[in-house]
Amino acid sequence: MVEDPSDTAAATGRRRRGTGLSIVLIRLALVFVLVGGVLELQAAASYRVSAGSVSFQLRPAWPGGRLVMPLGPAGELSLRTHGTPVDVVMDYRLPAETADLPVDDLPRLEGGARAAFSRYLVGRAPWLLAIGIAAGLLIVGRWNRRRLLWGAAAGAAGALLLGGAFVLASYATLDRSPSVRYDGLASRVPAMLPLLRTLSTGGDQADRLSRLQDFLDGLETVATQLTTEPRYPARASVVRLLLASDIHDNIFGTRIAARLAAGGGQPVDGVLLAGDITDAGTAQEAQLFLRAFGSPPAPVLFVGGNHEDAPALRVFRRAGFDVLDDTTATVDGVTVLGATDPVANDPRKSSDVAGLTATGVRLAALWRMMQPPAQVLLVHDVRQAADTIAVAKEAGEDLVVAYGNDHVAGVSTEDGVVMVDAGTAGASGYEAIGAASPLPLPGVEPPAGARTIYTFQLIDFSRTDPQYLVAVTTLNYAAGGRTVVTYTPFGQ
Q1: For 173-235, where are the alpha helices, taking DSSP H only?
Q2: What single-letter DSSP state applies at residue 325?
Q3: Nearest-angstrom CA–CA distance, 94 and 205
Q4: Is 457 among the domain residues?
Q5: Same domain, 142 and 255
Q6: Cβ pair 342, 353 in contact under 8 A
Q7: Which domain holds residue 345?
Q8: Burial level of 378, CB count in 10 A (0-12/13-18/19+)?
Q9: Which residues contact 214 (CB under 8 A, 6 or more apart)?
């Protein structure tokens, strides 16, 4: 039987078309491998370490060269450590923050962050090889077995060479004294000091690999010393109130409050001042505060303390402060009920216990009649809030009580009532400035008047309906540039 030439040509054409289609599909698959390899090369990887968990991620950046550590609501710590266009992001979670992670599936590394970073770099090598092989096969022209082998080998070798050169360039450009940048709510974090001490140690330090390990050890120290929750809500999703109290004419505390109210470009939605802004209640003291505090873009809600007096209150009212005296004010849907201290309008400084009790009874009656009740109760002395707290617990209603007076900051909760003690934003006032405080005995807490810590709180409510408390961030500023940021989250 003689084969028809036309049938042979048709079969050949079908085989060529099939081969061409196969090549196209293979090339598409190689493109997917190439893209997937690039993505995996930059993907984060997490590891269990002795103090929680740590994750690393390579992030292309220009000019890059930073070692970055997110610090939750405290912001971000970064060091300009090398000269290649990639940032290394190190995200540390303390044991209490790893509950939402599948920690049983993570490899455990007793060596800490240093061993984790080494393992992370080794884990990038297979993806680098995959990228090189895929690129080599795609570059090959006409496909045959020999060309494919050469293309795969050349691509793998090229990828390893480029990767090795990049690592060597990073090590060669390591900066033994890197610049440190901190972005966030506070200008400095005290937990950063061990890192700075590590970076400033003497000696030749010629081994740059050892220097990189010092960076990692320092960042690990930062993470273990900072109490924070990295997964904090976006600023746009919350109503943020700044709480400050007991400034007592301290110009430094006033300036810190002004900076926090400005929010670094994202002003707070409202300022709560819980009294004792002045020390003797004079008009001159109030004017001094206003000159340093300025005119914040947010409304200021104020309750007088036992160190206020009528002249100071008049100045604050003329300045536009909403002085709450058994009255309410609303900030972006968050209602605040407030009352001044019973002696806020006269020169007395000692507390009026009977007056505090009477105020507490009035506030509880007012709060009970409100529908819906106020989310925040703002007072100077917590004794003014005792009756309202009891009513809220009995009714099962959520309530935030913001107060000052005792100069001891703290956040606690019981039966839906969250107590936010503002502490002191003036470190016991102007009288303590420049005064040498005696060193406390071991294990003995110094008296409130001897403390030199400035405290402020940021109270975040959701913008959803109904609004609920999201978190309270406490900022503690102390002598020597020491700062502690404590983030306390709450659920709906």
Answers
A1: 193-199, 208-225
A2: S
A3: 31
A4: yes
A5: no
A6: no
A7: 235-431+445-489
A8: buried
A9: 198, 199, 201
How many separate domains does the chain show? 2
Q: Are both 199 and 313 inside the same structural domain?
A: no
Phi, psi of 292 (to 5 degrees): -80, -35
In this structure, the answer to whether residues 164 and 51 fall within a common structural domain is yes
What is the spatial distance between Cα 245 and Cα 168, in angstroms, rounded to a whole number? 54
Do 164 and 127 belong together in one domain? yes
pLDDT tens digits for 435-457? Answer: 334 444 444 444 433 445 788 99
pTM: 0.54
Residue with tokens 């201290």: 341
- Same domain for 292 and 178: no
Task: Give the model's pLDDT for residue 237.
Answer: 85
pLDDT tens profile 99-132:
444 445 555 555 566 677 778 778 878 887 888 7
Chain segment 215-267, per-residue pLDDT in tens: 445 444 444 444 334 345 667 788 999 999 999 888 888 888 888 888 766 78
Using alpha carbons, select from 471, 470, 430, 477 the residue that is nearest to residue 456: 477
pLDDT reported for residue 333: 93
- For 190-333, strand residue ranges (E) read 238-244, 270-273, 300-302, 322-323, 327-331
Tokens 């740059």 sit at which residue? 208
Within a domain: residue 324? yes
Percent of the chain with pLDDT over 70: 68
- Preceding amide of 372 cis, omega within 30: yes
- Alpha-carbon distance of 260 to 411, in angstroms, equals 19
